[in-house]
TrEMBL record:
UniProt domain Isochorismatase-like: residue ranges: 4-150
Organismal lineage: Bacteria, Pseudomonadati, Pseudomonadota, Alphaproteobacteria, Hyphomicrobiales
Record's protein name: Cysteine hydrolase
Transmembrane domains' residue ranges: none
GO molecular function, one term: hydrolase activity
Species of the source: Ancylobacter koreensis
PANTHER family: ISOCHORISMATASE HYDROLASE, PEROXYUREIDOACRYLATE/UREIDOACRYLATE AMIDOHYDROLASE-RELATED
Length: 185
């Protein structure tokens, strides 16, 4: 555990009910994220927050300076926890995230957050490419219904397909509860 960090991706107000881009099950996922954050803090595992921000005021969501772009209060960072601001889907692209992790001696990540099919996917694949071990707390992530042509894809199917693909790519999907239990070990 000494080289592990919890990476909390884009748990921001616009993804919650009443936000500009609500996700299926975001409240439940955020509760699991909060459990993991509490366990990480208790076990002195670094917690690193990532916040997506669009510099355009005309963005559909996460517009810079709006309440929707703020990290949700249920998972708010403590003053000593880093917040990496990103402008791309991939949390490692054009940010100091990789350098921050290396500086802290981090070799493995537990990744949580939103959206599973975009930013969680991109960060997980980038982390694997950079040589990090990755565990995904799959019940601490959220997505939404999608469509491909005439095929409607419910959020649960999007989530299952993505977790299967990321497991195939080398990540280890686990429940938040199992991770918390391991940390308490």
């Amino acid at each position: 555990m000494a080289d592990t960090a919890l990476l909390v991706i884009d748990v921001q107000n616009d993804y919650f009910p009443g936000g500009k881009y609500p996700l299926a099950g975001m409240d439940a996922a955020a509760a699991k994220v909060a459990d993991l954050i509490a366990a990480a803090r208790w076990n002195r595992i670094p917690v690193i927050h990532v916040r997506h921000e669009s510099p355009s005021s005309e963005a559909d969501f996460f517009a810079e300076g709006t309440p929707g772009a703020e990290i949700h209060g249920a998972v708010a960072p403590l003053p000593d926890e880093p917040v990496v601001v990103k402008h791309n889907v991939n949390a490692f692209l054009d940010t100091g995230l990789d350098g921050l992790l290396k500086e802290k001696g981090i070799g493995s990540l537990v990744i949580v957050g939103a959206m599973s099919h975009m930013c969680v996917d991109a960060a997980t694949r980038a982390a694997l490419d950079l040589g990090y071990g990755v565990t995904l707390a799959h019940d601490a992530t959220a997505t939404r219904d999608l469509a491909f042509g005439d095929v409607a894809v419910p959020a649960a199917s999007v989530q299952a397909a993505l977790m299967a693909a990321l497991e195939f790519a080398g990540a280890t999907p686990r429940t938040a509860g199992a991770i918390v239990t391991d940390w308490a070990g």
